[in-house]
Design brief:
This protein is an alpha/beta fold. The protein contains ten helices and 15 strands.
Length: 412
């Protein structure tokens, strides 16, 4: 049994400096930061330089802004793909989604990204719309580097030129990063391309004769209501790690929206599958570390609402990982929840610890893969299955699969 998570509001701390301090009036640091020490965080004095006792606290005290979403931030699938498309899916008795993360080009080489896109495209059948994926959900880090407005053409619109599905997204840390000269406003280009008020053909696509309209998501956090499933996308902010659902100045807007939205699902008696996606992974054993503080925030929202998700999806680590967590989350009964990392959409595959069923607290590390690929999620009224499809070296092949019973939260 896991203990109820602490509140998402952090205790007041000495503010971290917004500009570099000169070292002339104090003793220089021995190392690049004051956290390289054998002293446990709980026993450290608050640093006079950072105002914190840990690097993760320093990151949490220097978060980027989270723009407010429009209206209630809930979308209906029919408003994205049209009512006829939704009816086709209902008649098929199942809905499919693609998920990928971390797809931006790696030093000019976008071949792995294109191979993932080509493999996903083969899952579509123009003669059977209801059996084709509803759309693709990107798990963040769509664009890497400076001049993001210019990079959208070659890092996003070109690689998915032949992909027939629409593409929604949550923002990753690289989507939110700022550069003083070229990208001074966090998330500006992400909002322009995924959260436009009206769907239009952007210059980045139309200028090279690619037809893909901008998406009209309500913001960087949202819920998509669809047949058989609800999908919640959250912005886990700007730091390399750990992820955090709070915004600059300890802004709790997103956390409050999440709790309110989960409570509404509970009160309405909604019995569809629930999948929650963040960019930073709650659990990770390679590429990037786990975001345990963010996991506590998610647990708190679920506990307050009395709801447990059926699966948690993330990117950030450029590999594939799957964990099974058995815990009491959002209710009195113990549930099994798969936590999947799928940051293998085309950007620089990173090493990962081999998984062989290692017990890690209340989780089991089930499966891992270094390479490239995508998730194919299929939901019915009774079950959700999530398959990792490997595309490394351009060869499409199944790699892993997990199935969750919606009523019991049991995994097979």
């Amino acid at each position: 049994m896991v203990k109820k998570a602490t509140s998402s509001k952090r205790p007041a701390k000495k503010a971290a400096p917004s500009t570099p301090r000169k070292s002339g009036s104090r003793t220089p640091l021995r190392f690049a930061h004051p956290f390289f020490t054998t002293t446990a965080p709980a026993n450290r004095a608050v640093s006079a330089v950072t105002g914190t006792t840990r690097m993760s606290e320093f990151a949490a005290e220097n978060l980027g802004p989270i723009p407010a979403s429009r209206a209630d931030a809930v979308m209906d699938l029919k408003d994205v793909i049209g009512a006829p498309g939704v009816n086709d899916i209902k008649n098929a008795g199942a809905i499919k989604f693609h998920f990928i993360g971390d797809s931006g080009r790696d030093g000019g080489n976008n071949l792995p990204q294109e191979q993932v896109a080509d493999a996903m495209t083969t899952d579509y059948d123009p003669a059977a719309h209801g059996h084709s994926p509803a759309l693709l959900v990107h798990l963040g880090d769509v664009i890497y580097g400076h001049r993001k407005s210019a990079l959208y053409r070659d890092e996003f619109y070109r690689p998915y030129m032949k992909y027939p599905g629409k593409i929604m997204a949550i923002a990753g840390n690289h989507d939110g990063e700022m550069f003083k000269e070229t990208d001074p406003v966090s998330l500006k280009e992400f909002l322009n391309n995924f959260c436009a008020t009206t769907a239009v053909l952007p210059d980045a696509a139309g200028g090279v004769r690619i037809f893909r309209e901008t998406m009209t998501q309500p913001g960087v956090y949202w819920m998509l209501s669809a047949p058989f499933i609800n999908i919640i996308g959250l912005y886990s902010n700007i730091a390399e790690g750990p992820g955090n659902l709070l915004g600059k100045g300890q802004d709790e807007r997103q956390m409050k929206w999440l709790t309110k939205t989960l409570k509404a699902l509970k009160q309405s008696g909604d019995n569809r599958a629930l999948v929650v996606a963040t960019h930073h992974p709650p659990f990770s054993s390679g590429g990037h570390s786990s975001s345990r503080e963010m996991l506590a925030q998610l647990d708190q929202a679920c506990a307050d609402a009395g709801v447990a998700p059926h699966a948690m999806l993330a990117g950030h680590s450029h590999n594939y990982q799957r964990y099974t967590r058995t815990a009491r989350i959002g209710g009195s009964s113990s549930v099994q929840i798969p936590y999947l990392v799928a940051g293998c959409g085309g950007h620089a595959a990173s090493a990962v610890t081999p998984a062989h069923g290692q017990q890690m607290g209340d989780t089991v590390f089930e499966k891992s893969m270094q390479g490239f690929g995508y998730l194919l999620l299929t939901a019915t009224a009774a079950k959700v299955s999530i398959e990792m499809v490997r595309t490394t070296d351009g060869v499409k092949q199944p790699f892993d699969k997990v199935t969750i019973d919606i009523a019991s939260h049991a995994i097979s």
